[in-house]
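Throughout our pipeline, every protein is held as a single compact record rather than as scattered files. Nothing more is needed to write down the fold, since each code stands for a local backbone conformation. For reference, a complete record is included directly beneath this paragraph.
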Amino acid sequence: MQEAATYAETIQQTLEQEILSGVLAPGTRLEEEEIAARFKCSRTPVREAFRQLAAASLITVRARQPAEVSALSARKLIEMFQVMAELEGLCARLAARRATGAQIARMRDAHARLEAIADGDDVDLFYEINRDFHEVIYEASQNEFLAEQTRGLRNRVAPYRKLVTQRRRRRVDSLTEHAAVLQAIVDGDEDLADRMMTEHVNLLGEKLLDFIALFPEMRGD
């Protein structure tokens, strides 16, 4: 029989992936009984999985109420994107100083794969490869603490970031921005790599307008 701890880990990992991929949208209610039935287990590992997800700020747990996938306000998300832009900028800065040849090759490979599908309709695949591109840069920073903090914040905004990625223009613009970041890293230009990545991630100009369009309360509708 599967141990409760193993059940909890399986449930936590499955729900986390569904939250990050957008399968479980912000605000989705998570009933203990339904999750337990789905995974054919008692409620004990479900509660432990919920505790872990809540600790990662992916769900909200309240007494005597169903858990919910965390839903963030537009203002809070914009603030989080601003912080994430600074963290990712620092990752790119350090990558320009420390990236290995193998890591640069992986960045180039991810960028080439994105170019090949940018005009298509497979948003899920584009998002996954885009995440790979950023992940290599985190790794190339050679600073595991920074990588963990950046990754954690990125995971919290992932469902919303994916919504913006559904816009074809944003995907095409993202490629141009990636190319600038990649070239700065290849050239070892730390200042430029930092600036290009910060601008890429931050919600400025048309990116901010696209983002606000996801939140009717901010449009004055």
In short: The chain has a mean pLDDT of 88. The chain is about 75% helix and 5% strand. The chain has two domains: 7-69, 74-218. The beta strands are 29-30, 59-60, 67-69.
